[in-house]
Amino acid sequence: MENVLVVGATGTTGKKIVKLLKTSQYFEPIAMVRNEHQQVEFLAHDVKTVIGDLEKDVLHTVKNIDKVVFAAGSGGKKVKAVDQDGAIKMIDASMTGKIKKFVMLSSMGADQPEKSEVLQDYLQAKHNADEHLKSSNLNYAIVRPGSLTNNAGQGKIKLAKSLNEQGEITRDDVAQTLVRALHDDAANKVTFEIIKGDALIGKAFETIS
């Protein structure tokens, strides 16, 4: 079993990732939370936690960790501090901690943030974090979903390094994709986009692995 640190574990997508990892035969989730109050929910489900704040030092959070999923987001409130600088801090800590794989939840449009009128600051922050990860010595997968929905997941997606089309995808299917990307045989040192589609998630990875 590999210990996987879930950064952003208290978020909507983060909670889904933790749940999937908890039922996995390969991974043990470690939920990163900001305070003891947030620990309660995870401990009630026998999920280990570590207290860490992306606006502070995070080096201690990667102790005894094998892989990292970064699914944190500020919801537009602290874009630079969390989505950009927090992610960069986590990447640097992961390099120091010799993390085996870093899976980043990014966003479609992060490759060309200047093209967005509404989300430019957010996409620029994601872009900068993604570029920092690419230039690190870490093995990584950068996952860029379309618009997120709270519909029930289908377990099917459309995946490509560049889709050249807009679309939406359920948080369920994003969480499943992120967990699949943690495996050693899937998506190594690659960036790809996902929206809802017809290919089973495991099968979709074969186009980039």
Q: Into which percent range does the helicity of residues fall?
A: 25-40%
What is the annotated CATH architecture?
Answer: 3-Layer(aba) Sandwich
Distance between the termini: 22 Å
Q: CATH homologous superfamily? A: NAD(P)-binding Rossmann-like Domain
User: Order of strands in the sheet with the most strands?
Assistant: 3-2-1-4-5-6-10-8-11
Strand content: 15-25%
Major sheet characteristics: 9 strands, mixed
Number of beta-strand segments = 11
Mean pLDDT: 92
SSE topology string: EHEHEEHEHEEEEHEEH
Tally of helical runs: 6
Molecular shape:
globular
Q: Could you say how many structural domains there are in total?
A: 1
Q: Quote the CATH topology.
A: Rossmann fold
Q: What report would you give on this structure?
A:
This protein is globular. Strand 2, helix 2 and strand 3 (48-51) form a beta-alpha-beta unit. The protein has six helices and eleven strands. It starts with a strand and ends in a 5-residue tail after the last helix. It has a single domain (2-138, 171-186), classed as NAD(P)-binding Rossmann-like Domain (Rossmann fold). The longest helix is centred in the middle third of the chain and has 18 residues, at 79-96. Helix 1 (12-22) packs across helix 5 and helix 3 packs parallel to helix 4 (120-134). The strands form two sheets. A nine-stranded mixed β-sheet has the order 3-2-1-4-5-6-10-8-11, with helices on both faces. By secondary structure, it is an alpha/beta fold. The chain is 33% helix and 25% strand. It comes from Psychroserpens burtonensis. This is SDR family oxidoreductase. InterPro entries: NAD(P)-bd_dom, NAD(P)-bd_dom_sf.
